[in-house]
Each structure stands twice: as C-alpha cells, then as structure tokens.
Amino acid sequence: MKVLAVHPSALMYTKVFLRLEPLGLELVAGAARDAGHDVQIIDLQVETHKDYWELLESFKPDVVCFSGNYLANVPEIIDLCRATRVRYPDIFQFIGGHSVSFIARDVLALSEGAVNCILKGEGDASIGLLLRALEDGKDLLTVPGVVTMTGEGPSPVFVESLNDIRPARDLLRHRNKYFIGTLDPAASIEFARGCPWDCTFCSAWTFYGRSYRTASPTVIADELEEIKEPGIFIVDDVAFVHEEHGMAIANEIKKRGIKKEYYLETRADVLLRNKEVFKVWSEIGLSYIFIGMEAVDEEGLKQFRKRVSLDKNFEALDYARSLGLIVAINIIADPDWDRGRFEAVRQWCLEIPEIVNISVTTPYPGTEIWHKEARRLTTRDYRLFDIQHAVLPTKLPLPEFYEELVKTQQVLNTKHMGWEALKDTAGIAGRLLLKGQTNFLKMLWKFNSVFNPKLQLADHMRKARYLMPIQPDVVDSVDRKDLYVHGPGGRKTRALDDATEQFVDKTRMTEDACAADS
C-alpha cells in the first residue's frame, strides 16, 4: 500500500526557538516501510498545504496518517482530513500520536466521518498491524490501539524492542531546516522512551504507563554514525536516568570517535545523582542542557509534585556551569500571577546566567491537573492549548496578563538574543551562514512578530470551529490507572537498577502512593 505520513504546521513556540525533525512520524514511517509498504513523509513545519495537495495528486496514496502529538494542531489536522475526504473519498485516513490518544473519540466526532480511526499509543508498534488489516479486509477493531466511532480494539502495545526500530530519516525532503538554538542543522535521536516520574502537569508518564525502556548503546552509536547532521537533540523526556546506560553510550561514542554536538533535557536531581555521566558527556560534545525547574519557590515545586528542593535546583545549575554547559530552564507562569509576581520572576531570571523560558500553566487531557484543577477553563479552543496562551481564569485582566507575560519573555529574549547577546554568538552565526544555514540567524529577529500581547489576545477572539471536551468534575484524588494510554506494567517495565528505582520513588511522590502505583 502507498502511505503518506503528515506532520502538521509549526506551533507558536517552535516558530522562533527550535524546529525539530518529526522523529515520531519517521519511526512510524520506518515501521510501515519495514512492513513492505511504499511510504512518503511531508512535514508542514517546513512545507505548505499546497505542497500537501500536490503530493497527494502525484503520489496517490491509499492511506494518509497524521501526527497528532499536540492539541493545538487538532483543528488543522481535522480541516485537512475533511478536505482530503472531499477530494479523495477513497483514501483511508487515521490519526495517531500523543495528544489524540487521550481524546480519540472526541477527535473522531469532530471529524464527522472524515477520519476512519485513531491509533492510540505507540504508532510504530501497531502501524504494520493496521495496514495489514486494511489490506486483508479484516475488522480494524482487532488491531491494538484502534478506536473508531463504533468501538475500540485491544489495548495499545509497546514495540518489542527499541533496538529493532529505525526512523525513516531519508524520507524528509528538507533536513537542513531543523535546528535547536545554535545547533543548526540538528537531527533528533531517542536513547530511551518513557518517564518513571509522575508530575501533575505532564502526560508523558500517563501515556507510557510509567514505563522506561532503553536502546542498546551499540545500536545508538550505529544510528549516530549514520546521521549526517553535526547537531543532535536527544529527545528523551529525562536524559540519563540510568547512570550505567548513559555511561555505556558515551564509551561507545568515544570508542568509535563520533564527533557531534548534543542538546538534552533532564532533571536537576538526575544531574546531581549522575554527575560523572554528565561530566563525561560534556567531554564528548554535550553543549546544551535543559532543566525543567518549573518554579522558583518551594510552594510552586510542591504544586507540580517536583520533589526537588530549590537548593538542589541551584546546586544543579552550579554544577552544569562548572562543566561549561549552556543551561536553559523552564518556569511555568500561573494565571494567578499578578504584576508583582511577574516582576519578581523577571528580576530573578536576570540575575542568573541561564537561558530562561516561560510557559503558561495549561491543563491537558491525560494529566492530573486536567481532573483536579479547580479553576474552570475559560476556553475550549484547541488552538489555544499551546502553553503560550492562558486557558484558565487570570488574576490580572487578560490583556494585562499577556502584557506582563510577553514583557517577561521579551526581557529574557533581549538577554539571550538581543544585540549584546549576538556579540557572543556572532562567530557561530557567521560559520553557519557560510555553510548556508540560516535557521538560527533568522530566529534572532522573529521574536516580536510571534510573541505579541495584542496578537495573543486576538487569538481568543477568533471563532473556534472545534472545541475540546468539557473538563471532568473536579476531584480531590484521581484513580491514576484511568489516566494511562498504555496500562501500567509496574517495575518490570522500567529498565532501571534497584537503586535507581528507589531514587525515582523518593523523588516523585509520597511513599504510600508509590507503593500503590508500583
């Protein structure tokens, strides 16, 4: 069968700071190709809807699949599915990905028949089974993870081994368009999949059932040797949770003489626990490290159930600096912030050398705060669920909230990407320009055209064509197993030694809850 895999357009944040290759879609495409199908990919982050229609006409696919990893992309995906159904009524269309896995029936209902099914869970595990069922004319509801308007198939399944899957990187037509910061161009790679923690605002652990699986260091090194891009973004939710695994990958890279520059995300407590791993990685090319601090006070950390003290966060920042790493941190702005709070955060951020990103508290289906957030949503417009818009009631009038939010982001943008900051990166920008890479250089001037309080406020005034489901009633406690896409498999699904497993439990929640969710 001919299969066209589609990634939707860029979101607000990715229009400025980064543009990552659609690794998840490449893995799904690779699995479909391994199953014997003819596959192509189009990434609307770097191509247009016109390109999409031209490819449909020339390729003539039997199946079109869309990547639904982000709620804000849902309207675009549904619009494309509806229009495709009108022009090509015989094409089988389905959507997979992280976000749609939590709201499968809602998305199907909104499509009004344009979407044949949703494929929940890990798409690279089930895409071959779905395509085989289509070819053989079998009941789709025999396929793990399939959801239609008439029923639901067996529970989603995991890929048997991360060593056996390969992304179809060769199918991307514009690989030089992907970057993160000064890593331009940059490819993405997966060392491990899943997250053993359980932060209230996050749905990574609810998607994967708190599992944590790793790929073999030799397989990872093989893949790194095949990647042409000099920059590498490690997509793991928390890098190097398992010290031995991180060190083994580093040793394999050193043995083979692989020269790359790396960017990764991790937790402060993981960095402090596995200092030697990060030290070794800083010696083999790790340049950037992103730490999700989330809050600058103990009360905020408690709210997000990040059991990392402020002292530990600052200790981690100090250690990362000592390794010569460029550190970025994330702070979550709560709609309850007033002008004084914004100003305090601005001053704090200006006093530290790290790059600071500000996002906005956003309840998502699949997270605990979706069920427990007592403040009701002020909008159900999918387009606003991008962690850059306020979807909960704000203490300040909404126009003032956006003024303060963008003012804070602008101060931090000037600190790191203004003319003064450009002096520090002029050499890098010059070298990239000589190589024909302009992604990083262009982003330096794009901030004001994307982050604008009037534009963000105007986004609320647009008529919403597609509405999210109504929030469930507020509850004090949630049956955690009801949140999962992949059901929890307990300790056996986590590739962690006993000491690391104990470390995770101590840093995630109360001991009673740990025992109940082991």
TrEMBL record:
The B12-binding domain covers: 8-141
Assigned keywords, A-Z: Iron, Iron-sulfur, Metal-binding, Methyltransferase, S-adenosyl-L-methionine, Transferase
Q: Which GO terms describe its biological process?
A: methylation
Q: Could you give one GO CC term from the UniProt record?
A: cytosol
Matching entries from InterPro entries are given as: Aldolase_TIM, BchE-like, Cobalamin-bd, Cobalamin-bd_sf, Elp3/MiaA/NifB-like_rSAM, HpnR_B12_rSAM, Methyltransferase_Class_B, rSAM
Q: Which SMART domains match?
A: Elp3
Classify the source by domain of life: Bacteria
Membrane spanning segments where? Answer: none
**Which cofactor(s) does the record list?**
[4Fe-4S] cluster
Cross-referenced PANTHER family: ANAEROBIC MAGNESIUM-PROTOPORPHYRIN IX MONOMETHYL ESTER CYCLASE-RELATED, BLL1977 PROTEIN
Q: What is this protein called?
A: Hopanoid C-3 methylase HpnR
**What organism, scientifically named, is this protein from?**
Acetobacter cerevisiae
The opening ranks of the lineage are: Bacteria, Pseudomonadati, Pseudomonadota, Alphaproteobacteria, Acetobacterales
Give me the gene this protein comes from.
hpnR
